[in-house]
Sequence to fold (557 residues):
Amino acid sequence: MSALTRTADLTEAVNARVRGRWWRDPYLAVAAVVVLWTVLVTLRHGWAGDFRLHLATVHALSTDLWSPADPLVGAASGSPYYSPYMVLLGAVSALTGAAPQTVLEVAGVVNVVVLLVAVRRFCRHLGGGPLVAALAVVFTLLLWGLRPTEWSGFLGLTSLSWTMSYPSVIGTALMLLLWDAFLRYRSGDRGPRALAVITVLGALLLLTHPFTAANAVIGLVAFAFAGPRTLLRAGTLLGLAGAAGAVVALTLLWPWSDVFSLFGVAGDFDAPHKTLIADVTRSFGFEHYGLALAGLPALVMGGRRPLGRELQILFVLAVSLVAVGALTGSYGFARSIPVVMLPLHLALASYLGGPRGGRTPVRAGYAVVALIACCVGAYGASGGLVRAYWKDVTPQTLTAWGARPVTTSYDPLLPHIGPRDVVITEEPWPSRLVNGRGARAVVTAWPYPFVDEATRRRDAAEFFAAGTGPERRAAIADHYGVTCALLAHRGAAMRPGAVPGFHLKATNGGRVLLCRRCPSARHGVLTDLQSPALVPVQAQRHPAVGRKLNASHGLRS
Fold:
């Protein structure tokens, strides 16, 4: 029993020893390990997924910071991807001459550092000193499942190893800082400076990552419900209403994009998120999220702890939203899963690292359960761990450890594609690789309702169809300003004369790259920008985007 008692007293002892001695701060130790891991992952330069999308965005902004063409297809300006975060990275690349990939990789390390600062600041509201924040980081990285989800905004170790440079990571840091500012305002810090901080953080978050901004609103609602009396005074409500209005005004004034156009096409982004709902409904989500349930008892019983009611309400609201998404087919609501997990992680950290709980065997036993869950979580997150290994790792080893290989059969062909090229691909997925080179694609690999996707897919399919004549292929290539064609198989387009003006540039097995010289496409904006058929589609579906497109290129609506 004495051993259990000593385990239960560990948190109080740690908190007492670090007072006035920063080098004994457990949070600094945990943060240092996380940052080291981040640097090691970055030094491998192995990226996949949406990294290429954000790399394309930095490419476009570094080329033309003030009126950049669309980063994916070059057919519009005012892309929602042109957030303050991306504009900053584009400016750094343009001013320093650093390669866009280098800038984006360094930004990933900075994002993690800012996130760690935000976690430490927010965890002060949980009480208990630095150990609470340290445990919160550990639980957030490890307590997911044996097959943790890899997705933007999900902060498990494996997911973070891929997404650290994404806007969602800096967006999560902004969300925590916004919550911290709101809680301080609720507790009595209600001067103009506090409202200004809330306004700036809110605007930056909404422009940087709207999905995370929606999660931030869920948290703000939870905090308001948990302490309504302090917010019902007329002056307090008026101040918050003014801050909300200022956030909207600043967002509307952002010159690079119209983020509110996303609300009109939210349904177009549902399909990619269906897999997130499937992960929840399959086996009740235990495979992907089950380890987080270790924090459920602490959340349920922690209503009287600092911020306890707020975390409970946040959890209920987020779970309800995900459930509504699953029942109605609005799969984009699954992006609220991170704020389902966060209260579980924070409540567990608050209970085990906080001052309350006493010298009880129950607390010690709970700490053992949490430790076992973290060990299982570390095993599940082995894909994130192996990505920090500093020596060469074969694709087979990466797969065995649960990490995706980053090499593809198209890689030997990509050096022949330049930033100003326009590439038509036989399959949509290689468009990701094309965009990562800073080039534009005729058909995007990501949902992109800001252009006529159906027409582009139809034209691409016709270009590679066996029955299409050379003249029609040439007409499609000229319409989009195509400079290269990327074939997944040696098909009809490989026959001599099948694509007039194109010649064989490179091959790798069945992968083939055909290119032609097309100065107008390589040194100017894509011919789509002069296509009268495209502008009405955008202007009709997204008037704000259409107005920006017209203004940028001298077209009349």
